[in-house]
């Protein structure tokens, strides 16, 4: 009888251990407040992603958001800039070029102070080579100019500052460029001539 009792107690002990292990492996139910908090966080995250993706589709975001800083750091698409219908200057340079470094504070200031009136951009050709490869850049800094309607700027006195007007094989003016530094005053005069609103 002792053997039977021992086997019963072993079976009971094993049964108890199995029950304890099953109870321990069962997920514990979170309190209601924790369940609601987790659901709310998930809902807000999904909503935020949905709103962000929809606001950036087809360039529907406002052109004057903080995203419109002076530096172009991702793939450069001049057509997207020109769609904003503002006089546009894009300066190609490098943070290792001394004349480019001299122009950087001017470009940053103009980009900030002319929001909604003109676009002033900078492309670092060493960090964003692909952005520069479609432009005829012989030396840096080099600036390219477009009127608010997207056409290349035609300076009144092209030779006074040293502009180069590029034409395609059909003789159509496609780009206006300047190589070297420009002062803040020169850039403001050019933008004014390009039709920048005062």
Summarize the structure.
44% of the residues lie in helices and 16% in strands.
List the helices and strands and how they pair.
Elements: H1 2-25, H2 32-56, E1 71-72, H3 78-82, E2 88-93, H4 98-113, E3 119-124, H5 129-132, E4 142-146, H6 158-161, E5 163-167, E6 173-179, H7 184-193
Parallel strand pairs: 1-3, 2-3
Antiparallel strand pairs: 2-4, 4-6, 5-6
What can you tell me about this protein's structure?
The chain is of the alpha/beta class and 198 residues long. The protein has helices spanning 2-25, 32-56, 78-82, 98-113, 129-132, 158-161, 184-193; strands at residues 71-72, 88-93, 119-124, 142-146, 163-167, 173-179. The longest helix has 25 residues, at 32-56. The radius of gyration is 32 Å and the shape is elongated. The N and C termini lie far apart (107 Å). The model is unreliable at 56-68 (pLDDT under 50).
Helix content: 40-55%
The strands making up the biggest β-sheet line up spatially as 1-3-2-4-6-5
List low-pLDDT spans.
56-68
Q: How many strand units? A: 6
Overall SS class: alpha/beta
> From N to C, what is the helix and strand string?
HHEHEHEHEHEEH
**Span of the ends, CA to CA:** 107 Å
User: Mean pLDDT score, rounded?
Assistant: 78
Largest sheet: 6 strands, mixed
